[in-house]
Task: inverse folding
């Protein structure tokens, strides 16, 4: 009888309403607690990130150099057979950050070695990391130069802020990297078709599974002698444009150089290659905006509605990585003052219309790894959009490649090229 009475009570509307109010009240309480916790964590990260100009940073003058023993040195490769990112030099740079020890520690240049990480390190679980891509070039005069390293440092610090990693002094890191290149200067190829790739990387190494700003980090840099980025060399590439795939989205971190932007693209790149194409043209949104091509910024050269020649690249709206080569191309071509240069949205419908009206001239990608890479065609749904670059007497992409490499290899004197003493 008691059990039956309890069953009736449980089914009564009054009891159900009371229970619902209790559950709902409890849920609201826990939502408030969760919101407060999240807000506190966000505030803590924001407070740390506001300090973009670090009060504490490492100093080049404190650098410790430990040279490799003779038996640790490796033979230098032939520049003609270099592949991208397959071979590494004898030394590396490591700089640790520990909040409990006051922040950044002394930079150390040491023999190339493996990195040991705790299994709970944040980088392994939450992709708390970022990287940069730079190059050192051996000029025609034998001098080794970096290309606009200050821009890489600015971008690296912006990425650090977004990832909850500690910022640092860009000029001090440039000095440290220059010293590392100087130590391994024999690895800088004596060739104008090769260079020494520099990969600074910053990772969170906290041995903790909590999602929060890191209190321990490791900044390290490795060097790799490289040849052409594409195995085909300086040849036009074919692109797959499939609207079902998106590289970045508004409010995300597509404009930061983080590994989390690149891992999801590997599957799509493999699909493109299986379908006979070399790179992916990344589209975004219902209007199918062109954003990037592979890991490069994209440029389109055409005859506009006013009959003018125009060079366009997507504007920096949060979807686009602010490339160093991209900015250099914009500054160079604006200085030429030969055609209109614009940063704005480009859509597939516009590209198709330009093709139908025979107004397309060139398309090319641009980035540190490849410098400039011409595009032969875009394969979009059932359409093939071809670019008549072979019909251009002196195509823009070749002029840009010559202009940029002339600066990088010291054929012309230019403030963008920073000499390493």
Result:
């Amino acid at each position: 009888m008691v059990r039956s009475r309890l069953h009736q009570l449980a089914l009564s509307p009054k009891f159900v309403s009371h229970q619902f109010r209790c559950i709902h009240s409890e849920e609201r309480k826990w939502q408030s607690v969760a919101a407060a916790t999240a807000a506190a964590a966000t505030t803590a990260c924001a407070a740390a990130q506001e300090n973009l100009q670090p009060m504490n940073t490492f100093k080049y003058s404190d650098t410790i150099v430990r040279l490799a023993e003779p038996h640790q040195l490796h033979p230098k490769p032939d520049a003609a057979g270099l592949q991208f990112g397959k071979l590494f030099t004898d030394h590396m740079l490591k700089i640790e950050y520990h909040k409990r020890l006051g922040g950044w520690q002394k930079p150390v240049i040491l023999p190339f070695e493996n990195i040991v990480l705790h299994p709970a390190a944040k980088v392994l679980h939450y992709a708390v990391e970022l990287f940069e891509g730079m190059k050192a070039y051996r000029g025609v005069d034998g001098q080794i130069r970096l290309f606009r390293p200050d821009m890489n440092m600015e971008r690296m610090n912006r990425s650090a802020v977004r990832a909850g990693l500690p910022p640092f002094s860009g000029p001090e890191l440039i000095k440290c990297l220059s010293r590392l290149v100087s130590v391994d200067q024999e690895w800088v190829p004596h060739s104008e078709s090769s260079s020494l790739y520099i990969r600074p990387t910053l990772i969170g190494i906290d041995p903790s599974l909590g999602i929060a700003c890191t209190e321990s980090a490791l900044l390290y840099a490795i060097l790799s002698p490289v040849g052409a980025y594409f195995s085909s060399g300086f040849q036009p590439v074919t692109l797959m444009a499939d609207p079902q795939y998106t590289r970045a989205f508004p409010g995300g971190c597509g404009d930061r150089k983080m590994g989390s932007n690149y891992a999801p693209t590997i599957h799509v790149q493999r699909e493109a290659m299986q379908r006979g194409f070399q790179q992916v043209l990344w589209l975004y949104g219902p209007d199918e905006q062109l954003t990037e091509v592979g890991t490069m910024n994209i440029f389109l050269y055409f005859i506009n509605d006013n009959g003018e020649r125009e060079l366009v690249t997507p504007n920096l709206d949060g979807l686009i990585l602010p490339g160093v080569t991209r900015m250099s191309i914009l500054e160079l071509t604006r200085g030429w003052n030969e055609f209109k240069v614009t940063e704005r949205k480009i859509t597939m419908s516009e590209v198709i219309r330009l093709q139908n009206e025979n107004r397309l001239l060139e398309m090319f990608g641009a980035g540190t790894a490849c410098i400039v890479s011409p595009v032969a065609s875009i394969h979009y749904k059932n359409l093939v959009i071809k670019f008549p670059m072979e019909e251009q007497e002196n195509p823009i992409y070749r002029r840009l490649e010559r202009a940029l490499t002339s600066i990088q290899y010291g054929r012309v004197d230019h403030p963008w090229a920073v000499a390493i003493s």
Residues 1-51 have pLDDT under 50 and may be disordered. The chain has nine helices and 19 strands. The two ends are 95 Å apart (CA to CA).
